[in-house]
């Protein structure tokens, strides 16, 4: 008798196996013991994350491999969790242009962790933010040995910024890992992801307000109210991005516009001092300083990040071809991290090169404006996330575990409920 999960999300039986599309990541292929013509030694159920039309090629490879190396049966019967195609998962889990490689929409926490070591359409999303977390942590630890974060208040904006550039990729990595535990868990995971990104924009504002502000704007009204306005922006950003998830299924276009606006507005606000400095530098035809060069690279990657997020390229042009490697979200993660690296270098350059001038022309950053603003921002974001999590249409467990003869109907129904 089949398991409930197989009834709800039946395996893909290889309907595309007769199409010879060559090697490409695409389908989850199952070899059943009853299928004829198996290679000897592959008589256990074998799950292979493979490509369309790859079955025949795997067969040939197995034959050659067995003849050459006499591979033991155990090596060919490695069991990996089942993956699903887009029409087999509820609508809330579906991604534009991603056809295959979906994990089970009711995965356990352990399955989610293990899936990060299996090739799914989320694997590179997880790793492209998990590994950079360690890079930024390493940079942070190095700075701890050279900066006096405890008593030198000039370094506190940097402390807040470094904490947040470690936090946002880590939260994103966790969100991508655990987003397939349930529809509700998925929403909450991404609420936290948006919250961390929103706090990162606050960290940018705190560091820019202290180190990057143009000379002629120092002590002006924008400088004085920069951090309080940035706190208001985090409220707007987290609120708007979380809300966009509620309208995603009914109005995907509107949801995309809301979510993009939610992140673009704080970015433009934070970057105003930088835009001004770059423009003045270009008009004055004086060469870019080391700090400004890094800031310019950061801006280039930030624009690229925004473009990838909004455009869903390249998978929109060739749905199914970039399911595992190369889709826009992975590129978006990579561009965001590379941009953050250049931003960090720019902030560090400005911080050290402008210290004497800033110390003699403006007040030293206070605890309230830096760590206090961060704590206030975290509390505000947690409150917003809690509010949206409480507003989720929670469904009883049985509504997704009841059997259905038609999995596609099941998927559609769940999508409507969400
Ligand atoms: Zn992401």
Automatic annotation (TrEMBL):
GO cellular component, as recorded: membrane
Chief location: membrane
InterPro entries per the UniProt record, alphabetical: AdipoR/HlyIII-related (IPR004254)
Annotated positions binding Zn(2+): 176, 329, 333
One GO molecular-function entry: signaling receptor activity
Membrane association type: Multi-pass membrane protein
Region spans: Disordered: 399-418
Origin superkingdom: Eukaryota
Protein family membership: Belongs to the ADIPOR family.
Name listed for the protein in its UniProt record: Progestin and adipoQ receptor family member VI
């Amino acid at each position: 008798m089949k398991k409930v999960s197989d009834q709800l999300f039946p395996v893909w039986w290889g309907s595309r196996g007769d199409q010879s599309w060559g090697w490409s990541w695409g389908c989850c292929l199952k070899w059943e013991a009853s299928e004829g013509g198996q290679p000897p030694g592959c008589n256990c159920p074998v799950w292979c994350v493979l490509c369309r039309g790859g079955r025949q090629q795997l067969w040939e490879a197995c034959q050659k491999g067995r003849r050459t190396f006499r591979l033991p049966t155990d090596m060919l019967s490695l069991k990996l969790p089942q993956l699903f195609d887009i029409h087999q998962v509820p609508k809330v889990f579906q991604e534009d242009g991603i056809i295959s490689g979906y994990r089970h929409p009711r995965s356990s926490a352990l399955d989610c962790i293990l899936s990060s070591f299996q090739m799914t359409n989320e694997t590179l999303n997880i790793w492209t933010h998990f590994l950079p977390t360690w890079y930024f942590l390493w940079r942070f630890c190095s700075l701890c040995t050279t900066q006096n974060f405890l008593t030198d208040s000039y370094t506190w904006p940097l402390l807040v910024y470094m904490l947040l550039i470690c936090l946002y990729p880590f939260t994103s990595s966790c969100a991508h890992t655990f987003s397939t535990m349930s529809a509700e868990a998925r929403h909450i995971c991404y609420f936290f992801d948006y919250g961390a990104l929103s706090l990162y924009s606050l960290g940018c504002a705190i560091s820019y307000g202290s180190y990057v502000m143009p000379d002629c704007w120092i002590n002006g009204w924008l400088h004085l109210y920069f951090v309080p306005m940035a706190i208001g922006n985090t409220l707007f950003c987290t609120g708007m991005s979380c809300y966009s998830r509620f309208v995603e299924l009914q109005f995907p276009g509107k949801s995309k516009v809301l979510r993009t606006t939610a992140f673009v507005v704080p970015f433009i606000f934070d970057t105003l001092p930088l835009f001004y400095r770059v423009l003045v530098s270009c008009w004055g035809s004086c060469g870019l300083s080391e700090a400004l060069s890094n800031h310019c690279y950061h801006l280039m990657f930030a624009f690229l990040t925004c473009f990838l997020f909004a455009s869903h390229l390249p998978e929109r042009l060739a749905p199914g071809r970039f399911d595992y490697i190369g889709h826009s979200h992975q590129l978006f993660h990579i561009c965001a991290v590379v941009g953050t690296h250049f931003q960090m270098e720019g902030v560090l350059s400005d911080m050290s090169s402008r210290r004497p001038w800033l110390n003699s022309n403006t007040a030293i950053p206070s605890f309230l404006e830096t760590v206090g603003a961060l704590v206030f921002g975290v509390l505000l974001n947690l409150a917003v996330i809690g509010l949206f999590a409480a507003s989720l249409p929670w469904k009883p467990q049985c509504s997704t575990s009841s059997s259905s003869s038609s999995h596609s109907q099941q998927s559609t129904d769940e999508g409507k409920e969400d």
